[in-house]
Structure formats: C-alpha cells, structure tokens
Amino acid sequence: MKTLFRFILVCFLTVTTQIGGIVYLLSLVISKKWNKKLKFKTLIIFTSLYLFSTLLIVPLISPTFGREKVKHSEKIKPTNYMTVLLNRNYVKPKLNKLLRKTEKKLNGKNIEIHYLDANFPFVNKFPLLPHLSHNDGKKIDISLVYETQNGIITSKQKSVSGYGVFETPKSNEYDQINKCLKENFLYDFPKYLTFGKINKDLVFSEKGTKELIKNILKSRDLGKVFIEPHLKNRINLKNRKIRFHGCGAVRHDDHIHIQLK
C-alpha cells in the first residue's frame, strides 16, 4: 500500500507540476540517507527542494527548451500565484513579446493582463492537464475583464483560480454552450475548478474585454484567439483570428485563450 501510494503521488505531482514527481523521488532518497530523526522529514525536504527547483533551477534550464517564465510587470500579472508555483507559467519568448507589446498599447488605460495557465517549462507535447493544447509554449489563457456595478473597470476576478465563473449567453444570444454539452458532458468542467467564487458583485466588462482583445489582435505573431461565440458577438469583434475552439474542448466564456502562429 505504501508503494502504491507513492506511485500515485509521483503521478499526481508530475501531472500537476511536471517536476514534482522527480523532486519527490529525490526527497525520498535524501530522507532515507539523512539519519536525523525529524517529524515530517520527507515533507520538509520535498517542500524545500521543490521551491528551490521551481524558483531558481527551472528558470535557468527552461531556455534550453525554448521557453521562459511569463515576465511580470505593472500590468502583466498572474491571476493566482499558484500558477507560478506549479510551473504552469512558461511560454516561448515570442509570446512574452506579444504580451509586452499589448501592455504598451494599453498604457494609460485601466486594463491589466491577468494570465492563467500557460505551459510547463520542458518538453513539447507534455500535457498540461486539463488543457488539450497547452503543450508547446505557444499558448496562454487570459482572464476576462470585469467592472463594478458603476461601470468602473477593475483588476479583480470572480473566482480564486480565474476559471469556472461563466458569462453565460443571454436569452437573445446564440447558445453554443447548450449545443456542446449535448456532445461533451465535460464542456463546462471548469465550474469545478474555481477554488471558490469571489467578488460576486462584479459584472463582465464588455468595453474592457473588447479593448484587451483588440490590442492582442494587433500582434503579427498572434495565431488564434479562442472565446465563446456569444461573447465575440456581444462585444462586436470581427476578426478571422477569433475562432471557436470546438465542442471537444471546454467552454471559453470564463477566459480568453491566445496562441502564437
């Protein structure tokens, strides 16, 4: 049972952080060789080694695989810092440049770029679950923009993780969600990934989200933008790079997906 538990834990840590499984196995070896009696010794070793690797070692090695951390600035920030701690914040340099150029275009406007999952630091085609395509350094999810009841744009979000609080179709809008749910019962799976709903008084900002996407679309390196059809129509955006992601993915009315060519 102990071996089975360790095997499951290694798999879980690998799937969620990419490096966690290897770090855990190394922690077991160090714990066994370190004769000092200490409560939670393996956990302490693992935590220390994992943080050291994530914060210092991985950023040094990742450029070898053509990836780097998303560069933070005054307007570019993670929606939740667990994204950083789980090594899900790596992109190709071109995607960092796209974000920085978008930031400059937003200068003077009260709109920030809050990113969600991007990619792991190493190896193409290594899956970043539950995403289908975040495996090559070219993709990143961006939070929607919200505003107060008085129409003031804010940097706050409506869920702790940034995922799972949907801006559902209105009665007069095309309901792609319902159609996809008939084909894929997991289409609205992100509703289980909120880790808690917050700021329930905030409302979806049509002008803020439109301004953000318009400036992202100005980049020549941009390949595609995924967002639900009803939101695309609601904010009146017409561009061939704005696509529907298909019913085989999950719904995109809680975030914006962008990717390089």
Description:
The strands form 4 sheets. The chain has a 4-stranded mixed sheet, covered by helices on one side. Strands 7-6-8 form a 3-stranded antiparallel sheet. 36% of the residues lie in helices and 13% in strands. The mean pLDDT is 95. The longest helix has 21 residues, at 41-61. The protein folds into 2 domains: 2-63, no CATH class; 68-260, Muramoyl-pentapeptide Carboxypeptidase, domain 2, CATH 3.30.1380. The protein has 261 residues and is α+β, with helices and mostly antiparallel strands.
Write the topology of this structure.
Blueprint: H1 2-17, H2 20-33, H3 41-61, E1 68-69, E2 76-78, H4 82-85, E3 90-91, H5 93-105, E4 113-115, E5 139-143, E6 146-147, E7 153-154, H6 176-183, E8 203-204, H7 206-216, E9 222-226, H8 229-234, E10 242-243, E11 255-260
Parallel strand pairs: 2-4, 9-10
Antiparallel strand pairs: 1-3, 5-11, 6-7, 6-8, 9-11
Helix pairs in contact: 1-2, 2-3
**CATH third-level topology of the largest domain:** Muramoyl-pentapeptide Carboxypeptidase, domain 2
Q: What class, by secondary structure content?
A: alpha+beta
Question: What is the CATH architecture annotation of the largest domain?
Answer: 2-Layer Sandwich
What does the overall shape look like? globular
Unreliable stretches = none
Beta content comes to 5-15%
Q: State the helix count.
A: 8
Overall residue-averaged pLDDT value: 95
Radius of gyration in whole Å, from Cα? 20 Å
Question: Biggest sheet, open or closed, and with what strands and sense?
Answer: 4 strands, mixed
- Largest beta sheet: strand ordering: 5-11-9-10
Instruction: Kindly provide the name of the CATH class of the largest domain.
Output: Alpha Beta
Give the strand tally.
11
Question: Element order, helices and strands?
Answer: HHHEEHEHEEEEHEHEHEE
Q: In the residues, how many domains can be counted?
A: 2
Q: What gap, in angstroms, lies between the N and C termini?
A: 47 Å
Helix content: 25-40%
